[in-house]
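Submission sheet (multi-component)
Chains listed below:
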Amino acid sequence: MGTEYRLKGSLAFALAGAAFAAPALAGGVPAGVLIENTATATYTANASTQTVDSNTVTFRVDEVLDVATASQESGPVPATTTAVLRFKVTNTGNGPETFTLTANPAVTGNAFNATVTGLAIDVNANGAYDAGVDTALTNGAATPALAADGPLDVLVLVSIPASAPANATSRVELTAVATTGTGAPGTLFAGAGVSGGDAVVGASTASATAQATLTVDKAVVSLVKSATVADPFGGTRPVPSAIITYSIVANVAGTGTVAGLAIADAIPAGTSYQPGTLTLEGAALSDAADADAGQGGSTGVAVQLGDVAAGGTRTVTFKVRIN
Amino acid sequence: MSHRLLTAVCAIALGTGFAAPTFARAPAVALEGDVKVVRQVTENGRTSERLEEPNQVLPGDRLVFTTRYTNGGAEPATDFVVTNPLPGPVKLARVDSFEVSVDGGKTFGALAALKATGADGKPRAAELADVTHVRWRLASIAPGASGEVKYFAEVR
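Outcome: structure written.
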């Protein structure tokens, strides 16, 4: 008599005892659960109290195929050569299911496309790929079965092409697809669910995609060289004995810092370096190879700029005389 | 003293003696349970409800549980009470012309008059999802009469 909330095996009794457990799953009653209903009547007839049970109607809860994918990144992920993008895939259905994971770096609108070098299950949930600890997955392969409500931390490993411009952004998307099948909500896969029941596509279409964004984190150096000519006659014609002042402007764009930036320039043929004319940011540098940042001579000039942060510029000037 | 004791023993014996035949023969009233899935069907822009066999049931689906009673006896059945514990995986979808219990069948009443224990341990107004049992009471069913009671529920 009465009603049972029956699962399998010993769990059945635990749930039957907890006659009114709160719904355990976001996806609802687990697939495969049998719902049984019995009514009982008492009445008086022939001056005696009698009791009668109805038959028990029983039916099974079928499987809903649903999935959610979310980026775990709160903003663009800076990347110089490689990056790890964190996603979470959750089985929002009501039965165990495996999901095919596909990472796509070629999202419409990308300034450049990263290269997906691998996928991994973040076993130790630290947000980083630890070879030998985290489970590597081939792009396009299926996950192990996720229990209903089961989340999976997924890492997408990407590399950044050298040609990617500084500060450019690129999106990478991860799609999780139920291996039983996808389709419009309500699409039926007869007999493909838990315990031989049906599997039915839920509101998510059993496929979910999320995107994470990369931003290229690198400093880019550009050099601009210009020359002004002063001839001996007060003009600007490049005639013998005219003095050419070369200016080299190093501009650091992008993000971060370039380390050990150095500028070297040869003295053009047919000209002679004018000793004592080397400057950095307007301050004179000695020609000797000594404690200051520069040196100059008949073959060329060289200036050590050291570390220059993005947004910085350095200007080097020197003079030669046309022979 | 011994006479009085003997009377008491006889009373007990008679009590069980009278009760036994009622179990021996088939109950006068028979109950027939059924369940259907209530589907919303839209045809030609009009939405209607259709009852289907529970061959495919998913969380969130609406169900109607029906119990049909028939008095096959020669006497009226009085003080007829049908009690239906709700299966754990379903919750009541709406109140109807029945009493409900939110305490496992110990007490019954109108849902609006019942209290349940909230997550914070304090009493709060009972909700549909708290209902554990539904109960119908009929004064009498005439011989040969039949009818049905039903409740709507939703798969959790």
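Remark: Chain A touches chain B through 46 residues (CB under 8 Å).
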